[in-house]
């Protein structure tokens, strides 16, 4: 029952959702600010990645971890989830093991795009609207 959201009161779940979500935003903004320091790419990559993880964790408090995992790996979210998780790991590998700053930045951008596409899957017709918008802009 520990992995079920119903073990916490609704107020507690909403409070922890807010805390994690705000922490995610703060980490992402802090990481972006640190990017401009001389060796800021490592801090940026770490804080930006932590921000995305915190944002993901925030929804666990609303729906529960098991329900969250099931939703993340539904067919309509599978590709975005895999790309997002892979980019989280590859971002950190880029800065700590491979020492490739450009690659880390690329993986952060891909994190953002995958997280956005993942998030849009929860809003009815949002992905269709984005596709239609880009289609009309490009052709």
Automatic annotation (TrEMBL):
GO CC, alphabetical: cytoplasm; endomembrane system; membrane
Membrane topology: Multi-pass membrane protein
Ranges that cross the membrane: 16-37, 43-66, 78-98, 104-125
Pfam families (alphabetical): Got1
Family annotation (InterPro entries): Vesicle_transpt_Got1/SFT2 (IPR007305), Vesicle_transpt_SFT2 (IPR011691)
Keyword Transmembrane helix recorded: yes
The entry's keywords: Membrane, Protein transport, Transmembrane, Transmembrane helix, Transport
Compartments, as annotated in UniProt: Membrane
Key word Transmembrane present: yes
Primary localization: membrane
Any GO BP: protein transport
Entry's family note: Belongs to the SFT2 family.
Function: May be involved in fusion of retrograde transport vesicles derived from an endocytic compartment with the Golgi complex.
Entry protein name: Vesicle transport protein
Organism for this UniProt entry: Cuculus canorus
């Amino acid at each position: 029952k520990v992995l079920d959201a119903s073990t916490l009161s609704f107020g507690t779940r909403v409070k922890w959702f807010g805390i994690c979500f705000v922490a995610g935003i703060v980490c992402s903004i802090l990481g972006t600010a640190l990017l401009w320091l001389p060796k800021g790419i490592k801090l940026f990559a770490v804080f930006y990645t932590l921000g995305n993880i915190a944002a993901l964790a925030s929804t666990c408090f609303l729906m529960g971890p098991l329900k969250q995992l099931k939703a993340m790996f539904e067919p309509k979210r599978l590709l975005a989830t895999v790309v997002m998780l892979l980019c989280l790991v590859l971002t950190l590998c880029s800065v700590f093991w491979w020492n490739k700053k450009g690659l880390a930045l690329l993986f952060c951008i891909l994190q953002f795009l995958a997280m956005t596409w993942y998030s849009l899957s929860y809003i009815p017709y949002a992905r269709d609207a984005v596709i239609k918008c880009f289609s009309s802009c490009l052709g």
